[in-house]
Specification:
84 residues; alpha+beta; Multidrug-efflux Transporter Regulator, Chain: A, Domain 2; three-stranded antiparallel beta sheet; 4 helices; 3 strands; 13% strand
Length: 84
């Protein structure tokens, strides 16, 4: 289950960067947050976008290869599991 909003600390943990880095990104305008009371929060979509940006191109290629291999080998099984 996903959350609608994440705190700065949660986003820092997810992205494996410091809270200071997150604050710098906010200050620089690299990321947008939503104010809830006195806190800055990150919508789920922004967190997913940031997470996608942190994957290096070679890692992305490796992940795609692994997914394609799994689909090739287990595609029918995935379809059956999806129908249950």
């Amino acid at each position: 289950m996903t959350k609608d909003y994440y705190s700065i600390e949660e986003v820092a943990n997810i992205l494996r960067v410091s809270k200071k880095t997150i604050w710098q990104w906010i200050k620089d305008g690299r990321v947008k947050t939503r104010r809830v009371g006195r806190s800055n929060t990150f919508p789920h979509a922004i967190v997913m976008e940031l997470l996608g940006q942190t994957i290096k191109p070679q890692e992305r290629i490796n992940i795609e290869k692994i997914i394609n291999k799994a689909l090739k080998e287990y595609g029918e099984t995935f379809k059956k599991l999806g129908n249950e």
